[in-house]
Amino acid sequence: MSEVDVEGRTRTVTWADPRAGLVAAKSMSGLAYLSAIARGEVPGAPIARLLGFALVEVSEGRAVFEVEPAEFHYNPIGTVHGGLAATLLDSALACAVHSTLPVGAGYTTLELHVNLVRAITGDTGRLTCTGEVIHVGGRVATAQGRLTDASGKLYAHGTTTCMVFRPSGSGGQE
Asked: Among 3.30.1490.20, 1.10.1740.10, 1.20.120.530, 3.10.129.10, what is the CATH number of 18-165?
């Protein structure tokens, strides 16, 4: 196998210690915590810094992320790797669920289904990923989302199922 000549592109990524966010999360409702991240008062997830996306809007049951696709997102065949769309959908869908949870509750993704419907390149322009809750029960929550460009053209869509963890004594009935 021969070596490929590399031009020397670099990308430097810095992030805040995620433990500060974990401490804040334990004392705030999901909506208050995510709103603090969107305002820059609490550090966001290091993965968002690494991939260059951000939470730009949150309300109860809804979360919106944005990204500007770039060359560093590319796969070997010259388009943005599908993992970027999957990560954006996972983030938007899970945060939509998180925005509905009270202080002390948490969640984890159990299932993520992503449909990639159009190639993304560095020329695509800014993409918006919107996640919206379908159902939040005592232990299970579902959400759906869409990844679109500025004109509303669809690039990917998906759904998630999350397991919800509630503090003892807070019910938990579906």
From this structure: 3.10.129.10
Q: What is the pLDDT of residue 38?
A: 97
- Give 4: exposed, middle or buried? Use CB within 10 Å, 0-12, 13-18, 19+: exposed
Rounded to a whole number, what is the largest CA-CA distance in the chain? 62
pTM of the model: 0.92
pLDDT level of residue 20 (50, 70, 90 thresholds): confident
Opening angle at CA 108, ends 107 and 112, nearest 5? 130
Sequence-distant (6+) residues with CB within 8 A of 146 are 129, 130, 154, 156, 157
Residues in contact with 130: Cβ distance below 8 Å, sequence separation at least 6, in sequence order: 62, 63, 64, 92, 145, 146, 148
The pLDDT score that the predictor gives to residue 116 is 98
Q: Looking at the DSSP assignment, which residues form a beta bridge with residue 144? A: 132, 159
